[in-house]
């Protein structure tokens, strides 16, 4: 029998909602058995970040050559830098039967939806827009002007949550992490049941 393909899981949501934080909590948990797809980016490496662990850091020229080579499932320009998901790793990992987890901003998620409609899309939402603003201020990595731009973007992005399969409110990090893991588990069970039903139908039709 052909090996079952892994599931593609996409976690997205507005900047500052806590995507990176929730993703880290998920991958710190030894129970998690999906693979994280490391993105490529042209943004500067931050202190403490490791090339090939947090991101693959590329020059603009390198990134644009990769775009030409169709090396990305999706890519987006976000606050002046490119970010993209390498296609090879994702395909190979899914073909090996493992689940792949993407943590990407919303334009990229929309592109993935077109290419992989069967993927599982989870939107991480803030409890309120005020929480979002506080988190962006609290993180202290952006200027007041950039924060305002991101909040304005977030207003539009929050409207897009209807396009997702699930919405998880990031109130408490560990609760949000648990919800994402439960959604993935439930999705596997659902797909297995649908598969089994089809198999039964095909056998009965013979
Ligand atoms: N479209 C897309 N977005 C990405 C990718 N990798 C990371 N991002 C998103 O890019 C945004 C900026 O990421 P980053 O510069 O690390 O800043 P931070 O997450 O806001 O600290 C975040 O919303 C990430 O989720 C990717 O491969 N594709
Ligand atoms: N549930 C939460 N409650 C309070 N603060 C949070 C929560 N999740 C994340 N944060 C904080 O909000 C800020 C933005 O989180 P981050 O993971 O960088 O967001 P994103 O990756 O979506 O841009 C960080 O300072 C982080 O520590």
Automatic annotation (TrEMBL):
GO terms for molecular function: ATP binding; GMP kinase activity. One of its GO terms (cellular component) is cytosol. ATP binds at residues 13-20. CDD domains: GMPK. The keyword ATP-binding applies. PROSITE patterns: GUANYLATE_KINASE_1 (PS00856), GUANYLATE_KINASE_2 (PS50052). The keyword Cytoplasm applies. It is found in: Cytoplasm. Residues 6-185 form the Guanylate kinase-like domain. SUPFAM superfamilies: P-loop containing nucleoside triphosphate hydrolases. It comes from the Bacteria. It is an enzyme of class 2 (transferase). Gene3D superfamilies: Guanylate Kinase phosphate binding domain (3.30.63.10), P-loop containing nucleotide triphosphate hydrolases (3.40.50.300). It catalyses: GMP + ATP = GDP + ADP. InterPro entries: GK/Ca_channel_bsu, Guanylate_kin-like_dom, Guanylate_kinase, Guanylate_kinase_CS, P-loop_NTPase. Keywords: ATP-binding, Cytoplasm, Kinase, Nucleotide-binding, Transferase. Its EC number is 2.7.4.8. NCBIfam families: guanyl_kin (TIGR03263). Belongs to the guanylate kinase family. Essential for recycling GMP and indirectly, cGMP. PANTHER family: GUANYLATE KINASE, GUANYLATE KINASE-RELATED. This is Guanylate kinase. It comes from Macrococcoides goetzii. The gene is gmk.
């Amino acid at each position: 029998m052909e090996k079952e393909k892994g599931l593609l899981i996409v976690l997205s949501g507005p900047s500052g909602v806590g995507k990176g934080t929730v993703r880290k909590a998920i991958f710190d948990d030894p129970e998690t058995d999906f693979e994280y797809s490391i993105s490529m980016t042209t943004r500067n490496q931050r202190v403490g970040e490791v090339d090939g662990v947090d991101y693959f850091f590329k020059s603009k020229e390198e990134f644009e050559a990769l775009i030409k080579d169709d090396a990305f499932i999706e890519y987006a320009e976000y606050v002046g830098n490119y970010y993209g998901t390498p296609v090879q790793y994702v395909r190979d990992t899914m073909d090996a039967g493992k689940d792949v987890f993407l943590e990407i901003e919303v334009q990229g998620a929309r592109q993935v939806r077109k290419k992989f409609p069967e993927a599982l899309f989870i939107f991480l939402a803030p409890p309120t827009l005020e929480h979002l603003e506080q988190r962006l201020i609290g993180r202290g990595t952006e200027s007041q002007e950039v924060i305002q731009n991101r909040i304005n973007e977030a207003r539009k992005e929050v409207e897009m949550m209807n396009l997702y399969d699930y919405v998880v409110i990031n109130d408490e990090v560990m609760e949000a992490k648990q919800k994402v893991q439960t959604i993935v588990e439930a999705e596997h069970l659902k797909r297995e049941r649908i598969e089994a039903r089809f198999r039964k139908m095909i056998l009965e039709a013979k």
